[in-house]
């Protein structure tokens, strides 16, 4: 190492110390260590070159490079301590670690609002003897429509904007789809077991929707089904009334009005009196005093026949609700698109 090579050691040492002062994190420190002290680092290169110098120069050059190396190693250790004291550990007045000070709060996750409301709703039905069952999101036309008394080309299919899958069967038909509701699980469950049936089915559904504040193209539903001897419309009303009071408050009133779904007869929609204005009319209930929360009805005899139940012996009721819409009402959320936009400012409020 010539005179200028010794000067180069000094140069590298100064550069390294300046770069070290700019490090802010563990990643920075590691990058710095590799750049200067790593196997191919600047200083390591100079140390290696010492061996090829004329013998009379080796000693001085070696000493300079080794002393630079140990300077850099101690500077690195000091920087590690300084960063730890400032960023990661609590220090007392003199800079010493004070283990009695509270730690830095670690960020912890929470449950998604959909998960919270789905659990709350399922718990309410659980307390009334309903089991929780799940089913496939990719479904056959057969279960999503046919078994629910909605034959091919029936105009009722227009009620569900369907996302069909490319799969074609031998007849050239496309019988697979993303389920548009959780109702296909009605037939699947009844095919599997004899009455009595009491289940709730939470799960994702998909529709070819133009999204807006109350419509998503994928959203959750919770289906309910109860089938047994002697089940009447009074059982449907009593069960859903109890559900409304458990989830929305003991003083809730409910309202049933006629509605049409091909797989129930009679069919209804159920509303609760607005919990924000107690029925006087406000922005949340659209000035009507009532908020619609689900579709329901008595299971259609054709659906019972389709799964091999005798409709002269067994009757039942079914219902389907959208938990996001219920969470919107309960927590005052004004846009359903917030649920799946992955914005922590929204999600961390739950
Ligand atoms: C149905 O899907 C029926 N299967 C419900 C049913 C089950 C009726 C059993 C009778 C017996 P509907 O299309 O109205 O019905 O949807 C039910 C609920 O799902 C709605 O009240 C709403 O809360 C929710 N929902 C429907 N479409 C969307 C959407 N695009 N975005 C968010 N939620 C939706």
Can you put this structure into words, describing what you see?
By secondary structure, the protein is of the alpha+beta class. It has 11 helices and 10 strands. α1 runs parallel beside α4 and α3 packs antiparallel against α4 (55-88). It is elongated. The mean pLDDT is 90. The chain binds adenosine-5'-[phenylalaninyl-phosphate]. Adenosine-5'-[phenylalaninyl-phosphate] is lined by residues 181, 183, 207, 209, 215-216, 219, 221, 223, 261, 264, 294-297, 318-322, 324-325, 336.
Entry summary:
By secondary structure, the protein is an alpha+beta fold. It has helices spanning 3-21, 26-37, 42-49, 55-88, 113-126, 141-144, 184-192, 233-248, 301-306, 323-331, 344-347, and strands spanning 131-132, 138-140, 163-164, 176-178, 197-206, 218-229, 254-259, 264-273, 290-299, 314-321. Helix content is 39%, strand content 19%.
């Amino acid at each position: 190492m010539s005179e200028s090579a010794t000067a180069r050691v000094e140069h590298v040492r100064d550069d390294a110390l300046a770069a070290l002062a700019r490090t802010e994190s563990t990643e920075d420190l590691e990058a710095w260590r590799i750049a200067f002290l790593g196997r191919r680092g600047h200083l390591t290169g100079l140390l290696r070159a010492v061996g090829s110098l004329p013998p009379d120069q080796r000693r001085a050059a070696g000493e300079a490079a080794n002393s630079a190396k140990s300077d850099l190693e101690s500077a690195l250790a000091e920087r590690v301590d300084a960063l730890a004291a400032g960023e990661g550990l609590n220090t007392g007045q003199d800079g010493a670690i004070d283990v009695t000070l509270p730690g830095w709060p670690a960020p912890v996750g929470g449950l998604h609002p959909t998960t919270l409301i789905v659990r709350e709703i399922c718990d309410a039905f659980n307390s009334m003897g309903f089991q929780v069952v799940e089913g496939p999101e990719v479904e056959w036309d057969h279960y999503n429509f046919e078994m629910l008394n909605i034959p091919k080309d029936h105009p009722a299919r227009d009620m569900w904007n369907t996302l069909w899958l490319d799969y074609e069967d031998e007849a050239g038909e496309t019988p697979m789809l993303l389920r548009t509701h959780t109702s296909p699980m009605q037939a699947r469950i009844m095919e599997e077991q004899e009455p009595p049936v009491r289940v709730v089915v939470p799960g994702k559904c998909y529709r070819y929707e133009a999204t807006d504040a109350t419509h998503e193209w994928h959203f959750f539903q919770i289906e309910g089904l109860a089938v047994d001897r002697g089940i009447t419309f009074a059982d449907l009303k009593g069960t859903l009334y109890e559900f409304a009071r458990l989830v929305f408050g003991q003083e809730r009133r409910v309202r049933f009005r006629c509605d049409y779904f091909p797989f129930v007869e009679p069919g209804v929609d159920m509303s609760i009196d607005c919990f924000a204005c107690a029925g006087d009319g406000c922005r949340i209930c659209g000035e009507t005093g009532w908020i619609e929360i689900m579709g329901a009805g008595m299971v259609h005899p054709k659906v019972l026949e389709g799964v091999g139940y005798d409709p002269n012996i067994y009757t039942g009721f079914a219902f389907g609700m959208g938990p996001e819409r219920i969470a919107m009402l309960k927590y005052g959320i004004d846009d359903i698109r917030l649920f799946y936009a992955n914005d922590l400012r929204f999600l961390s409020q739950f």
